[in-house]
Amino acid sequence: MTCILLFCATSLATQNQRIPTTKKFREAPKFYNAPHCPRILDDDTTSNKENICLSSSDKIVHVAMTLDSAYIRGSLAAILSVLQHTSCPQNVFFHFVASASASSSLLRTTIAGSFPYLNFRIYPFRDSAMAGLISTSIRSALDCPLNYARSYLADLLPQCVHRVVYLDSDLVLVDDIAKLAATPLGGDKVLAAPEYCTANFTSYFTPTFWSNPSLSVTFANRKACYFNTGVMVIDLNRWRAGDYTRKIEEWMDLQKRMRIYELGSLPPFLLVFAGKIAPVDHRWNQHGLGGDNFRGLCRDLHPGPVSLLHWSGKGKPWARLDANRPCPLDALWAPYDLLKPPFSFDS
Ligand SMILES: *[C@@H]1O[C@H](CO)[C@@H](O)[C@H](O)[C@H]1NC(C)=O
């Protein structure tokens, strides 16, 4: 357990030499609803912001993200991009999951410092309980317990939240999140995400998995395709009813005993959901812009329109920009960067 947490800290230290503090980030402008938007959360009183269950929660766009000091710069950029491109920014509610051992007051001041009008709540995630379930993967940053928080949203978020859009911290939207949130989850689908059926699905699991018929039968009669878990629309009611958190944990538990996959939090999602998800247009997750997991080479966009740019993979745009070695597409992230330039003297 100590090892895993140490891995995280190490990878964070190399990615983020400077520990961000509140003063380092600019304040974003206030964003206002368009006239057609239903008025739900635009009362500025704190109590109203906190009591989302009193509001007509289903008209709110609920967004879940994780929050930690290493990725906070990415998170702030993602939040800004959401607000800037939605026509009803005051109807978006952010649910931030942070490690229970992190300073939630520092995270809270940082968020509120850049977004004084934001509707949000921070949920402590007991990642020490998580550590026992995590086995090490090929990229140490993937082993951070907070990476697994997306499997616990149904437990963490209030019961009155029926649907949530989960977003990673290394992405920006350039389109209205309300469109993504409105993705039809017909029938009995629990989650929606863009599927990539040309990706080699076999490669996400080990030969140990495929050669064991009692395991590989999992994907029998399923048109299983890879999907990226960094952008998902989740029906929390169906998730709760089907107890999917426990199903994911069961696979993680098995992984501890026999190595059935190499990556971190993704394969358990594939095991439980691949071939059973509602499709989302690929424009909503132009992923892989961080490059591969080994060298972080520059990647190009996939063909087609773009609603969301995702720097999944090893390289992060802020780190490459700081190092003066940006990839061409990192220029599309830079406009959302709220970090104050170095040596700026304004408070
Ligand atoms: C898919 O990946 C597996 C395992 O990595 C490999 O053995 C197989 O040749 C690959 N198939 C294709 C079509 O590339």
TrEMBL record:
Keywords: Glycoprotein, Glycosyltransferase, Membrane, Signal-anchor, Transferase, Transmembrane, Transmembrane helix. Signal peptide: none annotated. InterPro entries: Glyco_trans_8, Glycosyltrans_8_dom-fam, Nucleotide-diphossugar_trans. It comes from the Eukaryota. Its EC number is 2.4.1.-. GO terms for molecular function: glycosyltransferase activity. Pathway: Glycan metabolism; pectin biosynthesis. This is Hexosyltransferase. It is a single-pass type II membrane protein. Its main location: membrane. It is found in: Endomembrane system. Belongs to the glycosyltransferase 8 family. One of its GO terms (cellular component) is Golgi apparatus.
